[in-house]
Structure to design on (514 residues):
């Protein structure tokens, strides 16, 4: 199967977790993938792994908060690939802290990556895609952008911003006839290396895993692939009528 | 290898539009499909075209006894039920002031009652085979205000809420059954095209009321692709969620036509 054959995709935060899974899946389904991340060593490994298993990928060092680095990444991909069909704004950070105690600098650090990074990527991609006949931009938000979480003040604000920014940008592209679709995905808790590190803090991680899983009616936590399949759908032409919309992949968390 | 290889599906309203496109795609991706509809002629013609992995079973979704019989037929032919697409629906063009009791009950008998009976008996069959995926066809009219399809909106809103109730119930019972809804707008199906003709004939300003339909209609295949995703194991962490396929129709600035 090759559901995104011949397309070029840039995935941010692609060195690990959900981003890595997205990059690998898009490559398996026929896309050339730009593995963008801050972490050079691990990001390069992901690109190598894709190339050695018959796919096509290269690593691009990218700090999503830097407009200059976005410009560099786009000029590199223009030279190497000639076009961009798919942008996955996946890079994100989290900082535990509630509204009373989070410092302004911690707040700004979260907003900088999660919201400003998505804006910079989307703006750069629209400029490129509109003259190349269109594309699909996929922003990874979170169920924490739909509901509140007392201990994730900045994170919930940033992800709520990503959801509505997505709709605003989708309407712009539709109105202007750019043929660029923009959608978001709201995952629940996904079992990534970051989560495993959190679980490793517990002498017996099982009760903590069960506590988190029990918040999801389906009874287990998601895997990175669960999100990657949603990205694949939105990246492919299967979703040509879908824009300004969102996929909730949360095991029923927000259905309750 | 198909994306739903080895699975067995039941699709209601399968003789035309989104139901037909979903049945065709599910079979193409490896499923066996029982196509259900009240239009026996079209349903049988489509099933015979699709070959041995398709079976047509007449079904009026508003009749519980017919549901029980249809699922028995499905189980005796294909042995199990993995995917249920509650797609059958009808629309009546009328607002809250001029909707008749008859029209109200008719729309609900197909949409609301049909989805209830399907879910109830579909869960029964799916439990026996260890799980499954129920996909309910709702509408953007369950989300925004659509005055000229009052009963339809109410029914689609009920389907939206039923979906979440069923999803959480099945999760709490550990049935391994997921339940999600799809909310299309502006899809070129026989039902919608007829609706547009009626609306225009009645002098409604469809440019204001049906924005996406004038900006370019989607196709039944656009919805079928989402049915396929929700039917497949690709969406195993997706439960109680809703998917809007509307070319941004629901997020466009509100208009209240005079």
């Amino acid at each position: 199967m090759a559901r995104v054959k011949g397309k070029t995709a840039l995935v941010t935060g692609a060195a690990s977790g959900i981003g890595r899974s997205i990059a690998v899946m898009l490559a398996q389904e026929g896309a050339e993938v730009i593995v963008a991340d801050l972490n050079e060593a691990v990001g390069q490994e992901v690109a190598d792994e894709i190339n050695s298993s018959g796919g096509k990928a290269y690593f691009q060092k990218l700090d999503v908060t830097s407009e200059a680095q976005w410009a560099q990444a786009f000029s590199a991909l223009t030279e190497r690939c000639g076009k961009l069909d798919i942008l996955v704004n996946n890079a994100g950070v989290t900082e535990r802290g509630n509204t009373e105690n989070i410092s302004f600098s911690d707040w700004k650090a979260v907003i900088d990556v999660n919201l400003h990074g998505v804006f910079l990527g989307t703006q750069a991609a629209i400029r490129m895609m509109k003259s190349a006949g269109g594309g699909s931009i996929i922003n990874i938000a979170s169920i924490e952008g739909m509901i509140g979480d007392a201990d994730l003040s900045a994170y919930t604000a940033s992800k709520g911003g990503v959801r509505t920014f997505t709709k605003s940008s989708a309407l712009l592209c539709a109105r202007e006839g750019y043929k660029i679709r923009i959608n978001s995905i709201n995952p629940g808790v996904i079992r990534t290396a970051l989560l495993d590190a959190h679980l490793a803090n517990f002498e017996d991680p099982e009760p903590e895993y069960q506590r988190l899983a029990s918040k999801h009616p389906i009874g287990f936590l998601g895997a990175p692939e669960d999100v990657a399949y949603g990205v694949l759908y939105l990246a492919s032409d299967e979703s040509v009528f879908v824009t300004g919309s969102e996929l909730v992949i949360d095991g029923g968390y927000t259905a309750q | 290898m198909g994306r739903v290889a080895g699975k067995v599906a039941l699709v209601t309203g399968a003789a035309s539009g989104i139901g037909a496109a979903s049945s065709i795609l599910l079979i193409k991706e490896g499923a066996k499909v029982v196509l259900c509809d009240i239009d026996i002629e079209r349903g049988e013609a489509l099933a015979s075209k699709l070959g041995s992995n398709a079976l047509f079973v007449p079904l009026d979704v508003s009749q519980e006894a017919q549901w029980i019989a249809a699922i028995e037929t499905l189980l005796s032919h294909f042995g199990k039920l993995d995917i249920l697409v509650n797609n059958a629906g009808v629309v009546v063009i009328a607002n809250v002031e001029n909707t008749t009791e008859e029209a109200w009950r008719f729309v609900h008998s197909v949409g609301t009652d049909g989805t209830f009976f399907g879910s109830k008996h579909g869960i029964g069959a799916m439990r026996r085979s260890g799980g499954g995926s129920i996909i309910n066809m709702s509408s953007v009219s369950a989300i925004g205000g659509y005055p000229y399809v009052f009963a339809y909106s109410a029914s689609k809103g009920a389907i939206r809420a039923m979906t979440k109730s069923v999803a959480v119930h099945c999760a709490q019972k550990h049935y391994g059954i997921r339940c999600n809804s799809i909310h299309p707008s502006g899809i070129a199906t026989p039902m919608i095209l007829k609706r547009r003709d009626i609306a225009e004939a009645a002098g409604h300003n469809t440019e204001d009321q049906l924005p996406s339909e004038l900006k370019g209609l989607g196709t039944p295949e656009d919805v079928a692709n989402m049915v396929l995703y929700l039917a497949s194991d690709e969406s195993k962490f997706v439960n109680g969620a809703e998917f809007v396929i509307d070319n941004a129709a629901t997020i466009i600035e509100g208009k209240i036509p005079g």
